[in-house]
Amino acid sequence: MKHPLFIRRAMLLAASCTLLHNGGLALAAQGEEAAPIVGTRPALNTLTPQPVADALREAASASSSSGTATVEAQGNVAELMQMIQDARLSELRTTYNGSYGASLFFYPREMTYYVALFHDKHFWRVIKSADAGRAEAIYAGFVQQTAQLSEIEIQRTQLQAQKAYIQDVIALSEDRAKRLQADLDVARTQQAKVNDYQRQTQNEAAALREEKERAQAQLRQVQGQVMQLQRQTEMGLPGQR
Questions:
Q1: Exposure of 117 by Cβ count < 10 A (0-12 exposed, 13-18 middle, 19+ buried)?
Q2: Longest dimension (CA), the chain
Q3: Of 119, 178, 185, 215, which has the maximum CB count within 10 A?
Q4: What pairs with residue 125 in β-bridges?
Q5: pTM score, two decimals?
Q6: What separation in angstroms does the CA of 32 have from each of 57, 63, 91?
Q7: Residue 84, CB half-sphere, CA atoms under 13 Å: how many?
Q8: Residue 112 and residue 130 in contact, taking contact as beta carbons nearer than 8 Å
Q9: What is the DSSP letter of 240?
């Protein structure tokens, strides 16, 4: 039995609402906490149910007010930005790789998916599809693309950290070298003083040795004279028992 067109639409809308309720696709906004900026990796404790949608809504609003991103041609990018600004989308998935990111949005009213590729808070590509499988495949491709694109960025971040670490090690090594050089200078100065003292002591010891030998020779001479005089003094006297 065929139903009128408006009845089929109502039935489709009711089925969509049931699917969203049971599948958990609709995400309710929680609180008034500030959403993380698109293209940056938010802290887990600051995530809201729709972080990218809220952030992109702010970016879209700011771009519209400033006129920097106003485009007359209503392409998928402009359409998605407008829908984000109007809070008509549910964010299903988001992946960050460095400053690159990919998001999968769902428009419950028309059962339509929007797959977005962005970089540093700016949309790059937006694909619109009513096929959930195709949308998931495109999202997976975008995620892989963000991983590839972010490799050099991640490498740069790692190289910057390695450079900073090496510079810190160099600074510590230079400070260590200065300390060792200072110790070496002190040791060399002290060694020179010790060498001078040793030479002076050796010279004094040599001089004292010569003086001692002369004194011993003089002592032997004096003792010989004393013995000779003693014999002369006792000459003719009975010998001692």
A1: buried
A2: 175
A3: 119
A4: 117
A5: 0.49
A6: 14, 22, 17
A7: 32
A8: yes
A9: P
